[in-house]
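Subject: sequence -> structure tokens, single chain

Hey, anyone have a minute? Need the predicted structure for the following. Not urgent.
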Amino acid sequence: MDLVTREILSILDRCCDVYTFPILDNGYVYLAATRLSLFRSTQAWALVIEVFGFSPRAGLPDTHIYTFANCLQNRDTAHQYVSHEAYQRYLANNPNNESRFVYPIEAGPWQDPENSEVIALDAPPVILRGRPAQLPSLEQYTAHGIELETSPTVQVYEACRYFAATQRDSVLATEAERRFSIPPELEQILQLEDWNHPDVVDETVRPSDSETFQQLAAVLSTGNMQLYQPSLPPNTHWQNWPEGGQL
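Reply:
Had a minute. Here:
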């Protein structure tokens, strides 16, 4: 294992230890969709993971964009922090990682005004990336493998999973959003719609133990995409992470 590969894995492990690496069974987030992208130049590398889901504490579905890189740009500025010391802590604690959120579905009367975790009765279409998107019938949820928890009431996270199945590109990041924290000269060399993700809730499991991330780090180091040859089945579909959102 070469020096750059080891450095990448070390960064991912460090982020995992401070909870800035994606946890797909995050107890606060109902998972709906994920995507992973690799970017590279001769001097720089970046790994971006998108996670679309719903946290009741956030109020709206969001896409969390996790960026890990040796070349971050568009960092927070000092005026966004209450003090210079707080800003310096942000930089010191996140030297190779950044988190950004985008909200592909707009707030509106589609959410129950008394309970924002459920879809309103006779809800109008949601506005998804600026365009109306019709909410499905109960039968359409079933057709996409979504078993409603309290049918006929529909939970917001269930609608998120429907849109993840039918309008995936709209709920995940745009190219500009995906690239926001990395320099434009980096070339995208790989994009994965699914992969085998480590269950890092277990503190004995880290990205450096994962075949997936060992291979992806080697691809970033060398530019040789043939080094990504997974033997483990993908597990990033929300059905594989039933503990997500349960807190």
